[in-house]
Structure formats: structure tokens, C-alpha cells
Write a structure and sequence with these properties.
The protein is α+β, with helices and mostly antiparallel strands and 304 residues long. It is built from 9 helices and 14 strands.
Amino acid sequence: MRSTEMSKIAVIANKNKTLGGGLKELRRLLTEAGIRKPIWIEIRKSSEAPQAVKRCLRRGADLLLMWGGDGMIQQCIDAVMSARAGGKVELGILPAGTANLLASNLGIPQDLPKALDIALHGRRRKLDVGVINREHFAVMAGTGFDALMIRDADRTLKDSIGRVAYIWTGLKNLRNKATRARVSIDGKQWFEGRASCVLLGNVSSILGGIKAFPEAEPHDGLLEIGVVQAESGWQWMRVLARTAVGDAAHSPLVTAGRGRKIRVKLSRPLPYQLDGCDRKPTDRFQIRTRPQAITLCTPNEPAT
């Protein structure tokens, strides 16, 4: 771990997101830690993060503190990777969003003093990132049911009812028709049939803390994939019940696997999502993993 006294620390903060005592408390905590003049950039929405990252890198930042949710974290990671700076800058998460899946999977709490201490003094870990259609993600990506659910949970709905927004929009999309899909893993045909959801994971837990991929490790160089064939509310209940107890892979309605390079071809264009951010419809997906491509600040392992 690089000493914070020798680091050029930058803060990129979505000022519409809250955590603890807000950005005022973050400034105070940084000052108390001896960091009096960090690079400080406030943005209004996550789509402004890439330009903010570029500005921080040009100014020599080597520790980037990211204040926001998974959408903003994804935008920052994608910008760091696009700038080929994955090995040059350390990333600290201050989880201030509606969903903070990457933070929770890494054990970073929604507690500002504790999260900042991890960012400044925690263990530095090299983690994988996934790439879907040339855009990087750290948590998950997918098309079908999950993408439609996330697309419909717009900012206004999420701001008003929080995570309940995903449950509400999920119920709306339970009866959407499945689509013909062909999937190959590492160059070999793996699945062909009707699919209502194709989900990829770099970590184990997804929305609601559900362990969709219990064996996933964000540093093993592999991406998990699950294809769901449920087409009715009852079938989805069966899948979700299995998922809730960490046994989704054994559901007759789920086909699970893992690999380094994955290709998906659909019979019709569908929206897709990465790290909870919706993208425009397409019928082709090229996915791969970039092993241990970024450095995240994570909690120190407990003493043994």
C-alpha cells in the first residue's frame, strides 16, 4: 500500500448522493487525516464521471476516491481502463448510492468514517473487470428480465422509494416473453434455446444481496454466466426461491457456467445493463474478462 502522505488524492463526488454527514463531513475527515488539498470534483450525474477521471489523471492523481453508487463507480472504472491507467491509480469506494453492490461484495460499509479509513489505509487488491461490447463493468451485466427491470427503475422512482423500485419494476416484467438465444463460452457452443434472462457476474451477490453466483471470485480471471428460461410468474418464483438459498444453478430453469470469453446472439434486440446502468437494445454481445486489471482499496483481513 502506498502511503497517503505520498499520494496525490482526488475526490470525484456525485453531489446528489448522500452518505453519513455528506460531503461536508468528508472534507472534515480528510483534513483530520492530514489531507488538506485533495483534487476535488463534484458532478451532477454519473455520466459526467469519465471527464472528471480524465482531469484527475492529468493532474497526477494516484488515489481516486469515488463518492456515489454502482453506476458512477462503473463510469469511473471504465474511464480508468480506457485511459490505460488501471495499474497506475488506486480506487477507493465511498458508497453513497441507492445500490452499492461492489462495495457490499468487498465488505465496504455504508459508514463514511469506516469507508474512508478503508480507502486510505485498507488492503490494496488487484481485481478483475468484465468487458461487454467494449464497456467495462465490475459487478454484473445482463440482458432480458434484469435489464428491463433496471431500465424501468428510472432515477425519479429510485430516488423516491429506493431499492423497492427494483422490486416494483421486476414484478412488471415477470411475464415478458423469452427470446431465442445462442451462447458460446471460450469458443465452444454452450447454450441454445429460449431465454428470459442472460446474466453475467464478476462477484457473488447482486440486487437485494441475493447470491446469484455463490462461487464467483472477482480475482480469478473468470466471469460467471447464468441463463434463465422462466416464462411465467410461477416459474420465476421457483427460480428466485432457489436463488435465495444459493442454489440457483441446480434449478431446471437455469443453466450456469463460467469462462473468459462469452458471446451471446439473440433473435431480437433487447436492452442490456451493466452494473445497474441500462444501455440501448442490441442482439449481439461480446463479453470477456480482464484479469486483475484494477486496484481497489478493500478492508484489511482480520488478524488470525
